[in-house]
Specification:
With 288 residues, the chain is an alpha+beta fold. Helices cover 45% and strands 14% of the residues. It binds guanosine-5'-triphosphate and magnesium ion.
């Protein structure tokens, strides 16, 4: 193509490369969902339909982008983790974030009517913001995931107690707020149990733990793999034969993408699923 006098504008494009050899987490978050949830009458503190819609959209994103190794969602947010050796979108932050945000939003809108058959969407339509953060080590990545899950627990225990006081106890929001000021987890558990007969442990797992999305392979015996160390020792992507790459691709496509509500803070979750950190697909379980 011939050069034009306008072409110099290309020099204005700034690089926004993400650090190589790091775990990239793209976190998206619903914009103005406090208002949005009121408009569509989301149940408080947790709306099953809304959370399942978030999960369905996240699942669709993972199916389209095999480089995502795991995703974790709670409330109106979802974190998508790209493996440290992944070179998708030349590791450009804006490309990665915009792809995730637009794919997620498209599916959220597309799947809305399945989850809310009675309430059609109308403008202002749901939208999401997103950011990408690089984490250098497995410990950093796992601490990030733990941070989100602890946040989920703290918020959910608070919200469950807060809304029990209002919905079942008939108190006003300010009263409920005052009753919870300075309380610890044990106090909230006690309020729930002694005043409303609610055992927090029996609350739905999705509300207590959030949702984890990943490809499902056969679980391994804990202690048989040390993928965390292996992953940390990896300095660059391991060169692979074409056949191997093709095989991995097939196995990944065969794997079911599951949504579970598990503890991702403890080692066990990671120990039993070495493919999450190694990026090598595991054994596809036999059809039951
Ligand atoms: N009722 C209800 N509301 C929810 C549920 N999940 C998320 N939300 C709402 O979504 C909000 C998410 O918090 P934020 O992301 O901090 O608030 P936001 O209004 O989206 O603000 P920005 O993200 O800054 O645009 C919560 O405060 C709730 O109001 C749900 O299951 N039920
Ligand atoms: Mg939000």
């Amino acid at each position: 193509m011939a050069n034009s006098k306008f072409e110099y504008v290309k020099n204005f494009e700034q690089s926004d490369n993400l650090l190589p050899n790091t775990w990239v987490v793209v976190r998206i978050d619903g914009r103005g969902f406090t208002k949005f949830s009121t408009k569509y009458g989301f149940e408080k503190p947790n709306d099953k339909r809304a959370l399942e819609l978030m999960n369905a959209a996240a699942r669709a994103v993972m199916a389209e982008l095999p480089d995502i190794t795991i995703a974790y969602g709670v409330s109106d947010e979802y974190s998508f983790v790209f493996h440290k050796t992944c070179s998708l979108f030349e590791r450009r932050s804006s490309k990665l974030v915009s792809t995730i945000v637009s794919t997620f939003t498209a599916y959220y809108v597309h799947l809305w009517s399945t989850h809310f058959p009675e309430t059609p969407l109308s403008p202002p339509l749901p939208s999401f913001d997103g950011r990408a953060v690089c984490y250098p080590t497995v410990t950093n990545l796992r601490d990030y995931m733990s941070w989100r899950q602890v946040d989920c627990h703290i918020n959910n225990l608070y919200n469950t107690t807060f809304w029990a006081l209002i919905q079942l106890g008939g108190v006003h929001a300010t009263e409920a707020e005052n009753a919870l000021k300075g309380t610890y987890a044990a106090d909230k558990n006690e309020i729930l149990f002694s005043r409303f007969g609610i055992n927090y442990n029996n609350e739905p797992e999705m509300y207590k733990k959030g949702s984890v999305v990943f490809r499902d392979y056969e679980l391994v015996e804990p202690g048989t793999h040390d993928t965390a160390t292996e992953a940390d020792n990896l300095a660059e992507p391991v060169p692979q034969s074409k056949t191997q790459t093709e095989n991995d691709k097939k196995r990944r496509a065969k794997a079911r993408i599951v949504v579970e509500h598990l503890d991702i803070i403890k080692d066990e979750f990671w120990d039993r699923r070495p493919w999450l950190l190694s990026n090598k697909p595991g054994k596809v379980p036999k059809e039951p």
